[in-house]
Amino acid sequence: MKFYHSTKSEHAASIVNEQVINPSYYDLSAYLREVILSGWFDSDKFVDTNQLSIPQKFTDVEGNEQYVSWLGVGVYCFVETDLEQAQEYSANHDAIVEIIVDEKLCQGTNIFNMDSRPSRKKLKEFVVNGLKQLEDMQRPEDKEYVRKFREILEACLDNNFRGTPHAAGLLIDLYMMLVENFKIIKCTFTHGGGKKNKDPWFTQYVAIKDTEVIIELNQI
After folding, report:
1. Where are the alpha helices (DSSP H) in the chain?
2. Which pLDDT tens digit goes with each residue over 192-208?
3. What's this model's pTM, rounded to 2 decimal places?
């Protein structure tokens, strides 16, 4: 099984030479602490839970700016049949790395497709009930923040993460932290379709959550 990772040529050379590819990363615990439990919902940046608004960037306690990618922590790539998508991913990227993974480790329940009905049912159940339990565990002064956060995540899921793709990353990383782990995540996102571009298009992204499944990296 193989995937395609879009990057810059200098990064591709380093990845292939060292046979190491670093995942996109943010600190979920820091996000919850610095955004959800630190007054963001009381600030003028928050309107209401119906606005599907939730920060993608945040600053941790050390002053470092962190960024939540669309599928959270992971190595981002495209499926084998989407080489053209990988090539067109970014004007700043001029190289493709082929990622070969161990198929024995990436079968069945080790792959989580967020587009499928069973997966969405699991995520819905988690947001409604699993995160409700997390809400109930908070200090009284923090429960309202977690409730609003949970409501926004549920609304983003119901809206297929349109306009708030990073909410998918927050949701899947919370799910993996509290329920079960996966090797690979897949999710399709909608682009365009707004006032400026009425013709939407769709892209399925893949995030390799466990880099131990990678057995070979090649530049193509």
Report:
1. 9-18, 28-31, 83-87, 117-125, 131-136, 140-158, 166-178
2. 655 665 677 788 999 99
3. 0.90
pLDDT reported for residue 108: 87
Cβ burial 47-61 (10 Å sphere, 16+ → b, else e)? eebeebebebebeee
Q: Strand, helix or coil at 99?
A: strand
Both ends of the chain: CA-CA distance in Å? 16
CA 148 to CA 145: how far, in whole Å?
Answer: 5
Residues 92/7, Cβ–Cβ less than 8 Å: no
Specify the pLDDT at position 43: 61
Q: Are 203 and 189 in contact, with CB atoms under 8 Å apart?
A: yes
The pLDDT value given to residue 193:
57
The pair of structure tokens assigned to 69 is: 């990618």
Shortest CA distance to 107 belongs to which of 209, 183, 23? Answer: 183
The whole-angstrom separation of Cα 217 and Cα 99 is 5
Burial per residue of 126-162, b for 16 or more beta-carbon CB atoms within 10 angstroms, e otherwise: bbeebbeebbeeeeeeeeebbbbbbbbbbbbbeebbe
The residue with tokens 């099984």 is: 1
For residues 202 and 188, give the distance between their C-alpha atoms in angstroms, rounded to a whole number: 7
